[in-house]
User: Fold NAD(P)/FAD-dependent oxidoreductase from Streptomyces liangshanensis.
Amino acid sequence: MYDVIVVGARCAGSPVAMLLARQGHRVLMVDRSSFPSDAVSTHYIHQAGLSRLKDWGLLDEVIDAKTPAIRKMNFSYRGIELNGFAEPIDGIDAVYCPRRVVLDEILVNAARRAGVEVIEGFTVSGVVSSDGRVTGIRGRTGDGPEREFRSTVVVGADGFHSTVAKAVGAGLYNVRPASGFIYYSYFSGLDWGLNHKTGFNENWIGTWPTNGDVTMLATICARDQLKEFRQDVDNRFQGVFDDIVPELGAELRDRGTREEPFKPMRYPDNYYRQAHGPGWALVGDAGYHKDPLTGWGITDAFLHGELLAARLHEGLAGERPMEEALAEYQATRDEESAGVYDYTTTLAELTPLPPFLDLVLSSVSTSQEWTDKMLGLIAGGVEDHEIYAPDNLKRLFDDAGVPEEKRLYDFS
Assistant:
């Protein structure tokens, strides 16, 4: 009998399991994959996420794996340029974009060191229930016999196609349609640093260095372009770079060498899922998913994984009723992620910004101070009110020289 069974051992599951085991709880973690192994991902970890790795004692492992440090961001949205970098968060003055074959192994090994029992190659077929309460899981390793494991709580950290979420009937809410699709791969011969640029034709490019002396290049395009893109991926991919930044397009054509096949992803709609119930909880993409354009998936997995582990510990230790603790987990998750969710789903449409946001970003772009502050908000180290509070908006518009009659305010 385990205290907690975690289904899924990547960016959300391993932190939950590790943190609970460090508190002395008996934890089983299963995953259908074996490690090290790759996963479709943006790779990007914001400073707020790196802060969690640092606190867990794992950031140095990411750095020691020769993950390049990035200390400048080149952001643009339909001609609005923000080039700079956020102020340090918890002393972290860079961002890192590790490949998942690197990051996930670090996380799984950390869980093992904490005392988590890990079963790789285990496919969960369903949950075990008794009197309306989840009490465990069933599944098998490879072609072996079906096995059952019992626990006080089962955590689904198994992605947006979550078996646990389906088994318990976790409902969706605040759903917003996905706007695009992504293709990415790894290229040698380029030294571009971090670029995050949206063009005028409902398309986007992203570039960032990662492990193995390669740069990850990605494109996102509107869904209605998917059929044509699939028919000629190489030229369509190149064409997006040519369209958004012709200079980068020319350099990609002349110097870039693709080292691996393209990885496509037509991702699901943006959503929140009911994150808890009798004997179960969801974390990571299993419980909350948004467009990859802002690269907040891994960071949110860390933040919400730590939050869930803390509330589970309270329930397991008898400090408060488990249902009360898990309800607080969901409420806090939803409240703290709302701003990123709104910002991400707005930018992900790849269309002209709402007038208020367009004016704010345009004004921010006129000053390095405001640019770095906005990049700090995106990185998770600056709170919304530091830009959007009435007095700060007035100062921003004053600094940018926006005439009074053209100022827009949104204090809702």
About this structure: Residues 355-406 form one domain.
